[in-house]
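Internal tracking record. Fields below are filled automatically when a chain is submitted to the structure queue. Please do not edit lines marked as system-generated. If the sequence contains nonstandard residues, flag them in the REMARKS field before resubmitting.
Queue: standard
Priority: normal
Entity type: single polypeptide chain
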Amino acid sequence: MNAASTNPSLAFTRSLQASSLGVKALAVLLGSAFIAAAAQVTVPMYPVPMTMQTFAVLLVGSLYGGRLAAATLAVYLLEGALGLPVFANAGSIATLMVKPLSAGYLIGFFAAATLAGWLADRGAFRTLAGTVGTFAAASMVVYLFGLPWLAAGIGVEKAIAFGLLPFILGDVLKATLAASVRALVGRVSVGRKA
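SYSTEM-GENERATED OUTPUT FOLLOWS
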C-alpha cells in the first residue's frame, strides 16, 4: 500500500501534480485568485493588517506541492507587481511603494508556501505531528522574512510588538483551519473517485 492510498490529501496532491499542463495552469490561477481573495479579509492593524493570506498560503502549499505552490505564489506576486489589486486592502506594487512595511511578509508567503509544498511532497502531513510541525515551520518562515523588513522601517522592538505578537493566536487558528480544509479536500477528492 503506497502513502497516497492511506492519505487522501496526499492523493489529491499527487493527482494534481500528474495532471495536464492546462490543469496545472488553471490550478495556479485559481490558487493565486484564492490568495488574493483571502488578502481582502482583513483586520486593520498598525503597521500591517491581519489577513487570511496565511491560511490561503498554507492551504495552497500543502495541497499543491512544492513546485505548483511556488508557481502559484510567483504568479500572485507578479500580479501585484503588474498593478493588479491582489494584496491586502486591494493593494498592489503602487501600495507597497507608499507603504512598504509589509513587503517582507509577501516574500515570506512565497517561501512558506514553497516549504509547505516541499514538505507535503515528502509526506509531512501523514501524522498530526507532521502537520503541526509543517504549518509551524511555514508560519515561522513568513516572520523570518517579514519581521526584518518591518524592523528596518519601525525598529526591532516595535516590529515584534506590532508585527509578531498580535498575530500568533490568529496564525494558530489559520493553521488549524488550513489543516481541516486540507483533510476535507482529500476526503472529497477520494470520495469522488470511488
